Amino acid sequence: MKRPVGGRPAVVRMWLHELRYQAETCDRARRVVLVVKEREDDLRLNRFFLVSSLTLAEMRREDILEHYRARGTAEGHMGEMKDVLAPAFAIALEPWRTMAHLTNRPTRTGAAEACKPRRPASMPSLTTRFGS
């Protein structure tokens, strides 16, 4: 892809191109939207593809772009929430671990003991129980 003739734009320009694609292993063709963005500070055009099963009657290509942008934002928020809650979930699943074990902070028993997880001998690990 080449930049259009003329100088760099003062504002972001965007083009949406629509095509159909069917892989050999698929039973039907998919709708593909090519999004091309031109920004003033980029040397090359920024481009990406959106593959969707939505038909033209269901949603216009501009609406598909907005739909996937909103979805990406929501997935980003869920990822952030997962990162924040990960230590809490680890403690809930394996209650014999303390926060000192997760953060590798020394406890009264000493630094070497703080790094080792304490699990009762009678309690199997999660990998044993769930087969991971």
Describe this structure in words.
A hairpin with an 8-residue loop joins strand 1 and strand 2 (30-38). The chain has a three-stranded antiparallel beta sheet, with helices on one face. It has helices at 61-93, 99-103, 111-114, 126-130, and strands at residues 13-21, 30-38, 46-52. The chain starts with 12 loop residues before the first strand and ends with a helix. The chain has four helices and three strands; from the N terminus they run βββαααα. The model has no long low-confidence stretch (mean pLDDT 75). With 132 residues, it is of the alpha+beta class. It has a domain at 10-58. The longest helix has 33 residues, at 61-93.
Record the SSE blueprint:
Elements: E1 13-21, E2 30-38, E3 46-52, H1 61-93, H2 99-103, H3 111-114, H4 126-130
Antiparallel strand pairs: 1-2, 2-3
Rg computed from alpha carbons, rounded to a whole number of angstroms:
25 Å
Strand order, biggest sheet? 1-2-3
* Element-by-element helix/strand order: EEEHHHH
Terminal residue distance: 45 Å
The total strand number stands at 3
Task: Please summarize the sheet with the most strands.
Answer: 3 strands, antiparallel
As residue ranges, the low-confidence spans are none
Strand % is: 15-25%
Choose one word for the global shape. Answer: extended
Q: What class would the helix/strand composition place it in?
A: alpha+beta
Summed over residues and divided by their number, the pLDDT gives a mean of: 75
Task: Name the helicity range.
Answer: 25-40%
Q: Count the helices. How many? A: 4
